[in-house]
């Protein structure tokens, strides 16, 4: 289990991480969210031991993270970190040896991994000859070549088409099933909702929202109602508790501040030849925008 306790990090007078705490259990996928500059990368570097926190502690399975543990951690950076003049094989050997594996151990693994991600034919190609999506696959394989017990994924689906996103998702689930703790960071909230049970949202290095996603969505009382039919939107807009209305292709979306408003809306439309009336929780994307906006 990864345990981050009250870490603080300053760059000069700027507080990049402000008293941040969270835990990631074995086999758990945890979301660390925030806008650019929120402190995510600094947090990752502290976890990896690349930066020292000014105060607070980070431990993995009860032990302070040092060079004896960093070889058990994988990190997929948002930026490309490949040496483009190397071949795929050379690159994976290089990263594998940096992680404490022997060249033979790497060679025993890479064919299966390259086949898993459908790039075995590119084994002896130079990185610069690969598409962005295939480079991302190589970078992901480099991050997991050491069979990490903790994996940090920063925007892992960058440059991938839907088929390859599905391929990555399948392998991430496999790692989770094998007990790997995973920190997942993405600006695509649908991926966070799909993968993560718990999350933290950072603004200027400080946690503004944390907990289980199901509880966060339950406590965030705003809901959306999707309606199809012969609707007078002006009449709905007059209802106390209706925040706003969006006209979509063949339906309207009514945003309400509380579930208690649903019967009032239904009363207005029930005699209007309704073919759809669906109440949904707010999306994580809506909650993120709302909560971040509150503190900026």
Q: What labels describe this entry?
A:
296 residues; alpha/beta; Rossmann fold; Alpha-Beta Plaits; 2 domains; 4-stranded antiparallel sheet; 14 strands; 35% helix; 29% strand
The fourth-level CATH homologous superfamily of the largest domain is P-loop containing nucleotide triphosphate hydrolases
Could you tell me the CATH topology label of the largest domain: Rossmann fold
Q: Within the largest sheet, what's the order of strands? A: 6-7-8-3-9-10
Output the CATH class name of the largest domain. Alpha Beta
Number of strands: 14
What does this structure look like?
The protein has 296 residues and is α/β, with parallel strands linked by helices. Helix content is 35%, strand content 29%. It has two domains: 2-212, Rossmann fold (3-Layer(aba) Sandwich), CATH 3.40.50.300; 220-294, Alpha-Beta Plaits (2-Layer Sandwich). The chain has helices at 40-47, 67-70, 88-98, 103-116, 132-144, 162-177, 189-195, 213-219, 233-237, 262-269, 284-294; strands at 2-11, 14-24, 29-34, 55-60, 63-64, 73-76, 150-154, 181-185, 198-203, 206-212, 223-228, 242-247, 252-256, 276-281. It has a six-stranded mixed sheet with strand order 6-7-8-3-9-10. The protein starts with a strand and ends with a helix.
């Amino acid at each position: 289990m990864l345990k981050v306790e009250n870490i603080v990090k300053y760059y000069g007078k700027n507080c990049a991480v402000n008293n941040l705490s969270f835990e990631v259990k074995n086999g758990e996928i945890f979301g660390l969210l925030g806008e650019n500059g929120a402190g995510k990368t600094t947090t990752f570097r502290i976890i990896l031991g690349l930066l020292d926190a000014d105060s607070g502690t980070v431990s993995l399975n009860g032990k302070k993270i040092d060079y004896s543990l960093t070889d058990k951690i994988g990190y997929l950076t948002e930026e490309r970190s490949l040496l483009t003049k190397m071949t795929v094989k050379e690159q994976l050997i290089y990263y594998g040896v940096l992680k404490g594996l022997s060249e033979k151990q790497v060679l025993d693994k890479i064919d299966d991994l390259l086949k898993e991600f459908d790039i075995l034919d590119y084994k002896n190609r130079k990185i610069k000859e690969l598409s962005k999506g295939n480079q991302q696959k190589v970078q992901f394989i480099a991050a997991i070549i050491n069979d990490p017990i903790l994996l940090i994924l920063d925007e892992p689906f960058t440059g991938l088409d839907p088929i390859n996103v599905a391929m990555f998702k399948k392998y991430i689930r496999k790692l989770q099933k094998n007990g790997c703790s995973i920190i997942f960071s993405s600006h695509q909230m649908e991926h966070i909702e799909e993968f993560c049970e718990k999350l933290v949202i950072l603004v200027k290095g400080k946690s503004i929202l944390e907990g289980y996603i199901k509880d966060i969505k339950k406590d965030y009382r705003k809901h959306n109602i999707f309606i199809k039919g012969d609707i007078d939107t002006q009449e709905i807009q007059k209802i106390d508790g209706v925040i706003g209305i969006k006209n979509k292709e063949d339906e309207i979306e009514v945003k309400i501040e509380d579930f208690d408003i649903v019967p009032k809306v239904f009363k207005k439309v029930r005699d209007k030849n309704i073919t759809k009336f669906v109440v949904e929780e707010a999306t994580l994307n809506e909650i993120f925008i709302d909560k971040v906006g509150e503190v900026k």
